[in-house]
Specification:
Mean pLDDT: 81
Oligomer: single chain
Shape: globular
Length: 452
């Protein structure tokens, strides 16, 4: 039995590492999925924690209600059932709750020696991410990113080249926003702990978050600075590591490091210049002029990304009173239908004889009403609160409000409670659509550090 517990402990360490290898897969299985499962298995070492925890009964009742909503939708729409998709999303909810309850416990933290292990991990991952950043610019060795990117196309390559815009840090993730969503909470927890990061480590991890150039990271750092200003005004105390971290992140996010300026002979740049020259020769209508508003493909994708974010919140506001809440299988479908209305009208009016012609031949093109891929592929809602609200309705908001009120009632007198609320806000607003075991671990660890 003791041997099994030791094995489970090392499975947790392995799982933790695999979660951060989000850009890679083996036998078509993402390594991060394997990692999320492995850290969940560690909970079986502490089954006694769950048998005596009253909070688990509350979560169990809520979970049963959510499952009933999902099953009722599946019963009326069996053709939409995707077993893998459904099981994965339900597992994410279960594992989040289990890991949150588990890592509130001090015995678990001590068993894994998390304070030291996370501190060392931050150093190693920061150095690795900075190496990968410059490896992509200067054509140095980087492990093959064999997982498709986060777009709707299953075989599309990950973006590691921004031709006329600043290069962005990816680390071992597929998207800069994923790097921030997973790595920044660890940094924040260590900065606010008694066993703080060294100055060198603080600078390294701050630089990599800044180089990701994530708007979400900027907003979060600005929020942290605001909290420290209020602390200084009200209590004459200030956390200098938070100040240094936030300033470095904001500063490096404003620095433009364009790959083709630093290394114009890189493979990506040479291919880009060749395609650019051919386009200018054979098509005068294609604009590749840097001076005209930097109108490049990268800028277009950034604009589309921002528009998608605003579209998500417009969708929720516009459909607040009349949306049907039918579970996790329905959430992306209803947003897809909302986003593709104009595109469907355009396809009907212009292609009545061949309704799939534009969809098959120009899936990524936008002729004024939206991309045709909106019709065929579900869209990521990019926000946990939105995703679960669309899935389960006001019930989710009621659960969140009740839990927050209970926390405030029981722990508001604790000095560091506000830092736990900051972590909750971070997880809710981060651009990852679902909860999972890693975020359960983060929230439980934060509760142990700031509240218990």
């Amino acid at each position: 039995m003791q041997k099994l517990k030791v094995i489970n402990k090392y499975c947790f360490y392995l799982g933790f590492l695999l979660i951060f290898l989000e850009a890679y897969q083996i036998f078509s299985i993402p390594l991060s999925w394997i990692g999320l499962s492995l850290i969940f298995l560690y909970s079986f070492n502490f089954k006694n924690i769950f048998t005596t925890n009253p909070l688990l009964k509350v979560f169990l009742i809520g979970f049963i209600i959510l499952i009933i909503i999902d099953l009722s939708f599946i019963a009326s729409n069996p053709q939409l059932l995707n077993i893998q998709y459904f099981v994965l999303r339900i597992f994410n909810i279960i594992s989040f709750v289990v890991l949150f309850i588990l890592f509130k416990n001090n015995d678990v933290i001590q068993d894994l020696q998390l304070d030291t292990k996370i501190k060392n991990f931050i150093i190693i991952f920061s150095v690795l991410s900075i190496y990968i950043y410059f490896a992509q610019i200067f054509d140095l060795f980087e492990p093959l990113r064999n997982r498709s990117n986060t777009s709707v196309y299953s075989n599309s390559l990950q973006t590691t080249f921004w031709p006329e815009a600043s290069h962005r840090a990816l680390g071992t993730f597929r998207e800069p926003s994923y790097l921030v969503s997973y790595f920044l909470p660890l940094i924040y927890l260590r900065i606010k702990s008694l066993n703080k990061l060294s100055f060198t480590t603080l600078v390294l991890c701050s630089v990599i978050i800044g180089l990701a150039k994530s708007d979400f990271a900027l907003v979060f750092c600005a929020f942290l600075l605001l909290i420290e200003i209020i602390e200084f005004i009200t209590r004459k105390k200030i956390d200098y590591q938070i100040i240094i971290f936030s300033i470095i992140v904001i500063s490096f996010s404003q620095i433009n490091i364009v790959e083709c300026n630093l290394n114009p002979d890189s493979k990506d740049c040479l291919n880009y210049f060749e395609e650019k020259e051919e386009a200018n020769i054979f098509n005068d209508d294609i604009v590749f002029n840097d001076s005209i508003n930097n109108f490049t493909e990268e800028n277009s994708s950034l604009i589309d990304f921002d528009n998608e974010r605003f579209a998500i919140f417009r969708f929720v506001l516009n459909s607040f009173d009349n949306i049907d809440h039918k579970g996790v299988l329905y959430a992306n479908i209803v947003f897809q239908e909302y986003s593709s209305k104009l595109t469907q009208i355009e396809m009907y009016l212009t292609n009545r004889t061949q309704p799939n012609y534009l969809l098959d031949n120009f899936p990524t093109q936008n002729f004024g009403t939206g991309r045709y891929s909106l019709i065929r592929y579900p869209i990521n809602l990019q926000n946990k609160l939105v995703f679960y609200y669309v899935s389960y309705g006001p019930l989710v908001l009621v659960i969140i409000i009740l839990l927050l009120l209970n926390l405030i009632k029981n722990y508001n007198n604790k000095f560091q409670f506000k830092y736990f609320i900051v972590m909750i806000l971070f997880l809710i607003l981060s651009p990852i659509e679902e909860l999972n075991s890693y975020f359960g671990f983060i929230l439980g660890y934060a509760f142990h550090q700031f509240v218990d």
